[in-house]
Amino acid sequence: MQQLITAEQVVVGPAGQRVADGAVLVDGDTISAVGPRREVERRAEDTCRRTAVGGTVLPGLVNAHVHLSWDADFGMLERYRAADYAELLLGIAGRAQRALRAGVTTLRDLGDRDGLVLRVRDAIERGDLVGPRLLGSGPPLTPPEGHCWFFGGEVSGPEEIRARIRRNVALGADVIKVMASGGQMTPGSPPTWQSQFSAEELDLVVGEAHAAGLPVAAHAHGTEAIAAATAAGVDTIEHCSWQGARNSGPDLREDVAREIAARDIAVCHAYPPDWRSFQRVVVGEKGARAVLERIHWMDEHGIRFVPGTDAGLPTSVFDNYVGALSYYVEAVGWSPARVVEMATTGAARALGLEGVGRLAPGCAADVLVVDGDPLSDITALHRQRLVLARGQAVVPDAAVGQRVS
């Protein structure tokens, strides 16, 4: 069945390209026409479902870094480790739907147990569940007792690396995740600045993954791990904190930054939705300034950013992606138009998704409708009226009780 959505403006894709008094015509799960309202209306069938709104139609949002197995509350790790498969599957599906009702039509999950996220992905694609487009890594590669070992991806040496990648491919993984450095939430594992794999091992990870047709996402806080991941040719770097050896402070290497930009590797900073509280309670004023300085420094070197939230960690909820996007406007100082592009067209490109993140004939009917103009006011993204996921209409939580004509 066709659906026609008309609005004051339609944001069709990159660089804030927009059509005033525009319309989007959806046929099933695909966009069939986009343009000026009068032109698109002529292509609509008499039986077409018609929705008229006063605000903006734009591509659905893309969150490039989440953990759907975690519940975003304190103690989440203990509950995760105690949960059985049924509990985990229900939680994954519910959190994915919560994100969808907040305007996020694509999620990339970067770590779960036994590929459970991939089972939910398949259920959504079969039509058994309404949900966002899901990409998943399955268990991330990590050394024995390394960061996030509890996902089940522990490997030691080349043969185990190859075997783990083969198992993830067999699970149906969309991306291979490797913990190139330590992390902050795994007791007894290497510290964040310390590399967990050698340069040769990262070369092997990338070679095996790319041979299987899969991109590689590298968790890397330390500069040594960032440099090795970059040289290996990973596709995205998660966190990219530029921590010096033995936690000696920032180690910003010009040569590595230039190589990241030259290789067109996207950096997912993974900042939480409630970033003000995070800065006040966790990193402090000095730490917040250091983060901003790193972002501006990377931006000056031409590094491409893709937004993500690490949703699932305590207070990093699934239904406030817009809060995380506001950080880049209010703290970093980038324009709302740039941030909207990052979270739609740019994120889809970084994740290797064709026909996603823009509104054009033949593209997926992943659509967000909001009141106001998000290209000039990022908070307009909170005022959601309607979401389409592959053409299926979903009422956002923010629109419950409102009337959409």
UniProtKB/TrEMBL annotation:
Single GO term (MF): hydrolase activity, acting on carbon-nitrogen (but not peptide) bonds
UniProt-listed Gene3D superfamilies: Metal-dependent hydrolases (3.20.20.140), Urease, subunit C, domain 1 (2.30.40.10)
CDD domains linked: Met_dep_hydrolase_A
Signal peptide: none
Domain Amidohydrolase-related residue range list: 56-385
PANTHER family for this protein: ALPHA-D-RIBOSE 1-METHYLPHOSPHONATE 5-TRIPHOSPHATE DIPHOSPHATASE (PTHR43135:SF3)
Protein name in UniProt: Amidohydrolase
Lineage: Bacteria, Bacillati, Actinomycetota, Actinomycetes, Actinopolysporales
